[in-house]
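Translate structure to sequence.
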């Protein structure tokens, strides 16, 4: 059985997604809005995080409370995944952050790894792999492969815009991983870009084109 695919349908997310799809949106607003969507997505994604019951002494009595049972580790795929990290850590300030650096070879569209560093607690943590764009799915699947080889068991993917091709690849290769997106678009074009998409997310975040 495949993991679930959730397209988070929320008026604020939809509004902000329209802003970042607009080719007229410049670097400053694009970067800020990607971060804001990251925060809104985090609220949805963390809904089912495991909690444990704890007794808290209030000024009046003992209250039975629920606190997060496990560490959360965010793993952005560099570069574009970095754009969502501030928004997510705004909601989960204690989250640790690992990094994996990947770029797509422009000819083959295969991911090339150039960096990886993770916190020690990652194997037992709830891990959120973050990358705004799920195109062929090669980058996300590679990142998940690396994490699973390290012994990570609990992985969720969080993105903004996905293509059906990428969703299918993640579901096929990693059926235990749930997928959260802000939008599921139509297809990939001949250059591997998502249609209608929002263009090259890394370039738009960092002004490199
Ligand atoms: C983009 C994007 C994803 C990847 C998606 O990164 O941020 O990581 O492409 O494509 P895929 O699903 O076909 O693997 P890119 O390679 O452009 O690197 P960048 O983030 O450094 O710009
Ligand atoms: N990477 C991007 O940044 N955009 C796409 O449409 C596909 C891959």
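Result:
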């Amino acid at each position: 059985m495949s993991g679930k695919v959730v397209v988070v349908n929320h008026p604020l997310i939809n509004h902000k997604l329209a802003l970042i799809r607009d080719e007229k949106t410049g670097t400053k607003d694009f970067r800020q809005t990607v971060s804001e969507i990251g925060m809104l997505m985090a609220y949805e994604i963390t809904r089912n995080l495991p909690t444990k019951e704890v007794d808290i002494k209030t000024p009046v009595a003992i209250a039975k409370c629920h606190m997060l049972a496990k560490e959360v580790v965010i793993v952005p795929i560099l570069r574009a995944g970095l754009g969502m990290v501030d928004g997510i850590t705004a909601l989960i300030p204690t989250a640790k952050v690992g990094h994996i650096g990947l770029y797509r070879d422009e000819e083959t569209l295969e991911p090339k790894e150039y960096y990886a560093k993770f916190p020690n607690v990652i194997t037992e943590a709830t891990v959120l792999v973050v990358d705004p764009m799920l195109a062929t799915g090669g980058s996300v699947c590679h990142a998940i492969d690396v994490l699973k080889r390290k012994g990570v068991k609990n992985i969720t993917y969080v993105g903004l815009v996905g293509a059906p091709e990428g969703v299918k690849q993640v579901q096929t290769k990693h059926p235990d991983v749930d997928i959260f997106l802000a939008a599921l678009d139509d297809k990939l074009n001949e250059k591997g870009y998502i249609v209608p998409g929002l263009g090259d997310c890394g370039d738009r975040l960092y002004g490199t084109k």
